[in-house]
Amino acid sequence: MDVSAITSAFVSDELERTRLRTLEVLAPLSVNELTAQHSELMSPLVWDFAHIAHFEELWLLRELGGDAPTEARFDDVYDAFKHPRKDRPALDLLGVDDARVFAAGVRKRVLDGLAGDGLGSAADLEGNDDQLRREGFVYGMIVQHEQQHIETMLATLQLSQTPYPIPDASPPAGDPDAVGEISIAGGTFTMGTDDEAWAYDNERPAHAQFVAPFRIDRTPVTNDAYFEFVGAGGYRDDTAWSDAGREWRDEAALEQPEFWSAGPDGSWGRQRFGRWEPVPPSEPVQHVCWYEADAFARWAGKRLPTEAEWEYAASWDANRGTAARFPWGNGAPDPLRANLGGARFAPDPVGSHPAGVSASGCHQMVGDVWEWTASEFTGYPGFAPFPYREYSEVFFDGGYRILRGGSWATDASATRTTFRNWDLPIRRQIFAGFRCAS
Known about the structure:
Layout: H1 8-26, H2 31-35, H3 45-63, H4 74-77, H5 96-116, H6 122-127, H7 137-159, E1 181-184, E2 187-191, E3 207-211, E4 214-217, H8 223-231, H9 243-252, E5 260-262, E6 268-272, E7 275-278, H10 290-299, H11 307-315, E8 316-317, E9 322-323, E10 370-376, E11 401-404, E12 421-423, E13 432-433
Helix pairs in contact: 1-5, 1-7, 3-5, 3-7, 9-10
């Protein structure tokens, strides 16, 4: 991100653009829908909303400005690490109207502060000794945090059985010829970043990483390809499943991706935000856990790519010897390059964004579906936690698997070729798919 662009006006616009998206997602919902727990995997939506505001107050008003808390009890109620999601409905939560007042009040104080003292000059931001303020990092953290919770709230709404109003938007034209594999020669490249102003601690530091020659799918695995796996008995083929995967498959009674169901004629349908529809064959498969992705790859005679292979294929231009911020280069995402920001509430067909192809020839490495990788979540060499251990470090080496690339629900501010997401290998409610490697 160009440091010279990180002005008070830019930050204010990003905060307001993000809040508008939050309010648009929540606007169609009744008080009951906002306060209910739709799944034990997720928080009540009103908790997410008030947590967003509390996090903003904590960092932008209290940490930077020394303000007193609105209410001291919020430090307990809205601390994501003190109470598991399944227990949050029993907490003393703000009601819907009070949560709106709280969030609006915090935001007004933040915007008033930006309009007053502001962020300083670009030179001040670049050389500021305060890591939180340098290059506007703490403001970027707040923007990305809220956008990440918007995606979490969308996952909650997908789990709900109540129909949610989604746009009646036709998918762009795909390209079936995009499917296939490419060979990548491998080599040493720069993984991670030191230059991205708003990158999280787990994306840092940039470091030299060697990757051996490999092959990788040009596109994410499609529903059509996954039909074959299901139809061939892949869920019952023990040779395709790891020991841990087989154990989870049996315990969870996995038979198809989350939200799929078979019709009387054997065709597959899916629930999408409370409505039933046929499964589109050319879309990337989504709502599969890591164990399912790993089993498909084994069944197909392949494997999941390592995190380093994924980033190499997404970012590295071997001819120039440079890494790009996005697969297509350093230009900002737009609808021609990537399906981000929840425009259609679904992945786009594979091959539908040729302007977003990476230098290596891979399609849709940003947007559409998060992509599971083979790698477990841990810190890079020289990792230093910032600004708090609970963002990344406490999850290291805990069996979490890395996902890359962002989904159709992810905002552009919260994805880049270095962005690292992670989750447990059993999780299916997230908007995740995968591509294979060999």
